[in-house]
Design brief:
Radius of gyration: 29 Å
Shape: globular
Distance between the termini: 94 Å
Helix content: 40-55%
Number of helices: 15
Number of strands: 6
Number of domains: 1
CATH architecture: Orthogonal Bundle
Structural class: mainly alpha
CATH class: Mainly Alpha
């Protein structure tokens, strides 16, 4: 199946997705009367809609063919299965990151970074120090405005870390002339190292060949190949009918929510707000055991949208009596003399 035919196949799914997703300028508008029947399901979307949205945002949808990419495709072969696994939060988180990138007008290749860094596990910690979905070091996190304080590590917050990562990637994307490959190298090694490598190889960002930046470490150069391998795996996953069926399931739409200052327990707040309390706790490991300290003002957490209320049935309109036809004056004139004649 060609890329064009796959895009055609998923186009109807994407059209539905755009009508439901936050950040598209539609989700917050009052639903039209004809949408009342679908209000109850607006808190979820099909996993296929997330997949279509990811595919549409790729900067390089074509898969490179080389031995190194094949190595990484084998290494990350589990990624599509993670997204297709029922009961795994990875697909909902992936959808949240894809939405954030699309809203920032960034390529969705960047949504694959958490697969490489953390396996899309918001509570992941590295022995060397980095933590969270995006595996930020504490110095990097603080530099990009991620709060780290006693009882709260914002690197473990998908809201705080994703906001910072997308903002940083937006900066890098501009620095390197919109080349996502150079930007992810800079995300891994730092922008100054990449600029130095470009200078030493007599290249400029707008037409650089990342494979020729020999002064960068092998780990940094491999970073691009890892993301390309992941992109190819997902791009070709729709060739398996069983995977498409696994993806075609309702996935909660996640949103960043302000928690009231008076809330002290995350699970209780979620339950009172009509949200899935267990999922809210899983998505927010920055709050140990779900406890909210008094000093956590303006706390934002990631939560599934609550179910929309069922649409109330519209009362039946009262029956309107059939209109009574007005007398026809011509008919009356014609019948008048006849009646009179009969009378005589």
């Amino acid at each position: 199946m060609t890329a064009a035919s796959r895009a055609t196949r998923l186009a109807p799914i994407l059209a539905v997705a755009l009508a439901l997703l936050p950040g598209t300028g539609r989700c917050g508008d009052p639903p039209p009367p004809q949408a009342a029947a679908t209000e109850a399901s607006a808190a979820t979307r099909s996993g296929l809609e997330i997949y279509a949205r990811f595919r549409e945002g790729l900067a390089d949808p074509d898969c490179p063919v080389d031995s190194s990419s094949a190595r990484w495709r084998k290494h990350f072969a589990h990624a599509p299965q993670r997204l297709g696994a029922d009961g795994d939060d990875a697909l909902a988180l992936f959808g949240y990151v894809v939405d954030a990138l699309r809203e920032a007008d960034l390529p969705t290749e960047y949504a694959l970074i958490p697969f490489v860094e953390s396996g899309y596990k918001p509570g992941a910690r590295s022995r060397s120090g980095p933590a969270g979905l995006w595996q930020m070091a504490s110095v990097t996190a603080r530099h990009h405005g991620v709060p780290i304080r006693p009882g709260y590590d914002g690197r473990l917050s998908p809201v705080d870390s994703t906001r910072a990562a997308v903002r940083y990637l937006k900066t890098l994307h501009g620095m390197f002339a919109g080349d996502w490959r150079l930007a992810v190298m800079a995300y891994n090694a730092g922008e100054y190292r990449v600029f130095g490598a470009l200078r030493r190889s007599h290249q400029v960002a707008r037409d650089a060949d990342p494979e020729k930046l020999a002064t960068l470490s092998g780990i940094t150069r491999a970073y691009v190949r890892k993301l390309q391998a992941l992109s190819c795996l997902l791009d070709r996953a729709d060739e398996r009918e069983a995977w498409l069926q696994a993806m075609d399931r309702p996935i909660p739409v996640l949103e960043a929510v302000d928690v009231p200052d008076e809330a002290r327990d995350l699970g209780r707040w979620a339950a009172d707000a009509g949200r899935d309390a267990a999922m809210v706790r899983r998505l927010n490991p920055a709050l140990a055991a779900g406890r909210i300290a008094r000093g956590h003002r303006t706390l934002r957490v990631l939560a599934p949208m609550p179910p929309m209320p069922e649409a109330h049935a519209m009362p039946e309109a009262p029956a309107v009596p059939e209109p009574v036809a007005a007398p026809d004056p011509l008919a009356a004139a014609a019948s008048g003399p006849a009646t009179a004649t009969q009378a005589h």
